[in-house]
Amino acid sequence: MSNINLIDSFQEFKDFKNIDRPTMMSVMEDVLRSMIRKKYGTDENCDIIVNTDNGDLEIWRTRIVMEDGFSEDDDLEIELAEAKTYDPDLEVGDEHIELITLESFGRRAILAARQTLVSKVLELEKDEIYKKYKDRVGEIVTGEVYQVWKKETLILDDEGNELLLPKTEQIPADYFKKGDSVRAVIYKVDMMNSNPKIIISRTAPEFLQRLFEMEVPEIFDGLITIKKIVREPGERAKVAVESYDDRIDPVGACVGMKGSRIHGIVRELKNENIDVINFTNNASLYVQRALSPAKITSIKLDDDKKTAAVYLKPDQVSLAIGRGGHNIKLAGKLTGYEIDVYREVDEHEEDVDIEEFSDEIDGWILDEFKRIGLDTAKSILNLSVDELVKRTDLEEETVKEVLSILHSEFE
C-alpha cells in the first residue's frame, strides 16, 4: 500500500504543466535519497531508477562483502555469511547489490515522503510560474474572467494560472462577468508569501503599444517605430510614430484604409479616441501636431522653461483643450512642454459668440445670459454690472468675473 501511495503522488504531479520531466525526476530522487539517509545514514552506495513514463521506481543498494567479524559499517559493508544467504557465489571483496522495497521504510516514512514530494512540487510550480511571467512583462495575455470583486477581477489564463486585474488598471467603461474573455498586458510580477502575484493592466501605455503591434504589420516588422504613447484610459490617447522608410506613411499605415486597422484597437479600448501623429524633432511642429485636431495660428516656444504659448482662432480653442481638458493635457505629456492656449481675435471681427468661452465660463452661467437674449460677448459688455445683476439670477461677483474674461478677449 505504501508503495502505491508514493507512486500515485508521483503520477499525480509528473505531468504538472510547468515542470519538465528531468526536473520531476530530480525532485523524486531527492525525496527518496532523503528517506535513504534517514534509514541507512548514507545514500552514497544507492542508485535510484525512476521511470517517468509509468511512475515505476527502483532503489538498488551496493555493499562490499567483508570477512565475518570484520564489518565495521553495516550501511556500506556486509559480512560474508549474511551475503551468502542472498547469493552463495559471493566472496570477500565482491559487491553485494540488493533491491530495497519502499515497504521496508515503513508507513510513516512513506507518508512523510509523499507530503514532502507534494510540497516540493508545488513550490517548484510557483517558482516556474513566477519565472515564466517575469520574463513576459509587457506582453499581451488573454484569459477568462473567473471571479469579479469590488477592487479587482480574477482572470485565469489558458493554463489555469491566476492573473489579477485591479480596478485601477481597468478602463472606466470596462464591465466584466464570469466567463468573459479579457485581453490585457502583463504589468507587474511579484512574489508574495512564496506565491506569485501577476498583475495585468488595460490602462498601461504598453497595452496600446502591443495592440498596435498586433494590428499594424509595419510596426511589428520594425519599419514604423512608436516613439511615445500617452493615455487618459477610456477617453483619449496620443501616439507619436516615425517611419524609417520614406515610402511608408506611418500615420496612414497605423490608421489603415478607412480606419480599418485602428477601429479594432478603439473597440478594444471601449471607444477611446486615438490620435496618431508623425513624430518630429522640430519642437514647434511637434506641439502643433500634438494639439490635433485643433489648427494653430501661431506658436511661441521657450525651450529653457519648456513652455509653449499657442494662439488659435476662437472656434479652435475648445478643440485644442478637448473635453475635460484631456487633449491639451496629453499634448503636454507627449511633447514635454507646458502648453498655454490663447484666443486670437481678428481686429475686424465685430463680436464673438459666448459659446466660445465655454472653457472659461461655466455652462449654466452662459445659459443664464442666453435666457435674456445675450448670446454674444459685446451684447453683454454693452450693459452695466448693475443691469446684468438685475436681469439675471447671477451674483455681482460672478458678473464682474465674466466681464473681466470678455474684456480680455478684445484687448
Short description:
The chain is α+β, with helices and mostly antiparallel strands. The protein contains 15 helices and 15 strands.
Chain-wise SSE layout:
Blueprint: H1 2-14, H2 21-40, E1 46-50, E2 57-66, E3 77-79, H3 80-86, E4 95-100, H4 107-134, E5 140-148, E6 152-156, E7 162-166, E8 181-192, E9 195-201, H5 205-215, H6 217-220, E10 224-232, E11 236-243, H7 250-255, H8 260-268, E12 273-278, H9 283-290, E13 296-302, E14 307-312, H10 314-321, H11 326-335, E15 338-343, H12 363-371, H13 377-381, H14 385-391, H15 396-410
Helix pairs in contact: 1-4, 2-4, 5-8, 9-11, 14-15
Domain tally: 5
CATH superfamily of the largest domain, please?
Answer: NusA, N-terminal domain
Helix content: 25-40%
Order of helices and strands: HHEEEHEHEEEEEHHEEHHEHEEHHEHHHH
N- and C-termini, Cα separation: 98 Å
Number of strands: 15
> How does CATH name the architecture of the largest domain?
2-Layer Sandwich
CATH-defined fold name of the largest domain: N Utilization Substance Protein A, Chain:P, domain 4
The overall pLDDT average reads: 86
Largest sheet: 5 strands, antiparallel
The CATH class of the largest domain, by name, is: Alpha Beta
Number of helices: 15
Low-confidence stretches: 1-5
Strand content: 25-35%
Shape: elongated
Radius of gyration: 38 Å
